[in-house]
Design brief:
Largest sheet: none
Radius of gyration: 18 Å
Shape: elongated
Helix content: over 70%
Distance between the termini: 34 Å
Number of helices: 8
Strand content: under 5%
Structural class: mainly alpha
């Protein structure tokens, strides 16, 4: 996609014009997809632990530990992103982080021991947190100051739509197979990694933190 310059008179740009910014549509897709995968664990993880045979009184404790690990490592990924962006482009950081996250999620899906699930979910959280923050940085690199607030509103909107739809879709998939929710996440991450690697244009953005997302 071609780079589009903002209007110098500060007039409001259309959504189609903002979408034409270099890499912007890819960043929208990334934020939507990553949040979809990240929030898919919530509705099904306790059910998955029960399916694995853990005692009913242990399921809430183990699920709480796993959710905490996912949230904590996601926050660490936010900090790791800024360090990686000093050495690599967003395209490289996102592609590798998403691919490693997919591999970790595959190991998680094949595991039934708490320690193995904890370690692999920590890697998933770290990779998704890194990817989301890097995606915001990539978006910031192509957004002119004139439309910065509007464009970031679209980015945040894409992330929030992913957060809102994820529990519904994961619930529909889990009705047939709980494990299929994680397999769908693996496939989604691999697709995102391929799209980023093949389509995203190399650009080194200024390093800044992503906007804080309200926990649902």
């Amino acid at each position: 996609p071609r780079q589009v310059r903002a209007k110098t008179d500060g007039s409001r740009m259309s959504f189609a014009s903002i979408l034409a910014f270099e890499n912007f549509l890819i960043v929208l897709l990334l934020l939507f997809g990553l949040q979809m995968v990240d929030r898919s664990f919530g509705p099904v993880l306790p059910l998955y632990l029960d399916e694995l045979g853990y005692a009913a009184d242990r399921v809430p404790i183990i699920a709480g530990i796993l959710f905490s690990i996912l949230a904590f490592t996601g926050a660490l990924g936010n900090q790791l992103s800024s360090r990686l962006l000093r050495r690599h482009s967003p395209r490289v950081v996102i592609a590798w982080a998403v691919l490693v996250g997919a591999a970790a999620l595959a190991v998680f899906t094949a595991s039934d021991a708490v320690w193995a699930m904890s370690m692999t979910l920590a890697v998933v959280g770290l990779c998704i947190g890194t990817s989301i923050t890097t995606a915001y940085a990539a978006g910031n690199a192509v957004i002119p100051p004139d439309v910065h607030s509007t464009a970031f509103g679209f980015l945040t909107g894409a992330a929030l739509i992913g957060i809102a739809l994820s529990p519904v879709l994961s619930g529909l998939v889990a009705a047939r197979s709980i494990r299929a929710v994680f397999v769908s996440g693996i496939v989604a991450l691999i697709v995102l990694a391929i799209v980023v690697r093949k389509v995203m244009v190399e650009r080194n953005p200024p390093v800044e933190s992503a906007p804080a997302m309200e926990e649902s």
